[in-house]
Amino acid sequence: MVRKFFLTLLSLIFSLVFTIWITAFNLKYFFLNPNYYKNLLEKSGIYDQLIEIIPDLTLDKQNFEFGNIPVRFTEEELLSIYSKVVTREYVQVQIEKTLDDTFYSLNQGKNLDINISVEEPKENLQKEIQLLLEKKLRELPDCSEAELQSISSSEGSEIPLCLPVGVELQTFLDTYMGNSIFGSISSEIPEVISLYGGNESDINQKIVSMSLMLRLLTHEIYYLSLIFSILLMGAIFAIAIPTSSRFRWVGWNLLNIALFPFLISILGFFIGNRFIGTLLNSYGSSLPQKIIYALSPIFESLFLQLWLLIFTESLFILIPGIVLLVVSIIYKNIERSEKERELINMVEKEEQKKSG
Fold first, then answer.
1. Largest Cα–Cα distance in the chain?
2. How far apart, in Å, are the Cα atoms of 197 and each of 92, 116, 202, 204, 286?
3. Final residue before a domain boundary, out of 157, 192, 227
4. CB-based burial of residue 324 (10 Å sphere; 0-12 exposed, 13-18 middle, 19+ buried)?
5. 88-108 and 34-44 helices, crossing angle to 10°
6. Is 278 part of a structural domain of the chain?
7. Closest by alpha carbon to 212, among 296, 110, 294?
8. Whole-model pTM over 0.70
9. Is 229 in the same domain as 140?
């Protein structure tokens, strides 16, 4: 009775400590590892989807303009510029750099200082606009003197109706269009977009305090919980008698730990997509339907990878637990057979003594 009480107590402590270790393990090698999220995002196809929805987020469909840049283009021309300026590779590099900076801040307890470089797309934007303007200007008819005066007095906010006779294309572009267009690009688009900079930022204070807790969990608690789990497993194995009981206690412990996350992962596979759809419709109602449609498979893929991780880990614990329970049944039958054989031998010896 006392042995059973101690085994039950040790089993409860083992379940708690081992669950803590699994949590610390996932944080250390998955959830606090930027490479884990990079792989998830790559598999989800998010970068291809973002390239399609970025114009919907930034493009003024009514005026076909880049913000306040004073040149108007057709929608087809704008989308062509976007495809050359905001490339898939650029988006991927910036997102992965943001992940590296964020998790470096979390893991090291440093201030979160995310800088997104816009220098490359800004230069490409100027180049693509200039190429497009040159193409448009080459198609213009020649100007008369009166039209030339009108162009000279204009603010250069629109493509002119004609090209002055005798003026080189590049000279005209620099004189009449360049200052207005590229000056506006320089003022409207910064070289770097900084997020959460500064020591006194609220988010930085929260990150530093969170980092201390996460570091404790993924280092000290990780190793301590692993050592205690091994010691508790050894204690259960040592106290439980006979051998079949040892396997049964260890097997039940592993089964109890793995069963709940295993069932949760199975449930996630079946109702996860419906949950994501409800979530996007509730919190993304202000977004265009095209963006919601594009984001849905991305979130579905991310959650699928999460359920798959939980399912795989629980399976690695569940299978040994089932195996140990089966082994305990086999050992119990062997022990019962041995007891029956001993009992038969004792009866035979008693009968021999009586007959002798």
1. 143
2. 22, 12, 10, 8, 29
3. 192
4. buried
5. 150
6. yes
7. 110
8. no
9. no
Cβ-based neighbour number of residue 141 at 10 Å:
9
Least confident of 24-33, 59-68, 217-226: 59-68
Calpha distance 195→207 (Å, rounded): 14
Specify whether 186 is located in the same domain as 238: no
Tokens of 228: 């205690």
Give me the mean pLDDT over the 61-70 stretch.
Answer: 49
Does some domain include residue 37? no
Angle at 28 between CA 227 and CA 223, to 5 degrees: 15
Tell whether 11 is covered by a domain: yes
Under DSSP, is residue 272 helix (H, G, I), strand (E, B) or coil? helix
Segment 132-149 mean pLDDT: 72
Q: What is the mean pLDDT of residues 174-184?
A: 57
Total domains in the fold of the chain: 2
Residue identified by tokens 């021309």 is 77
Query: What are the residues whose beta carbons fall under 8 Å from the beta carbon of 21, sequence distance 6 or more?
Result: 222, 225, 226, 229
Read off the pLDDT band of 70 (50, 70, 90). Answer: very low
Strand partners for 117: 192
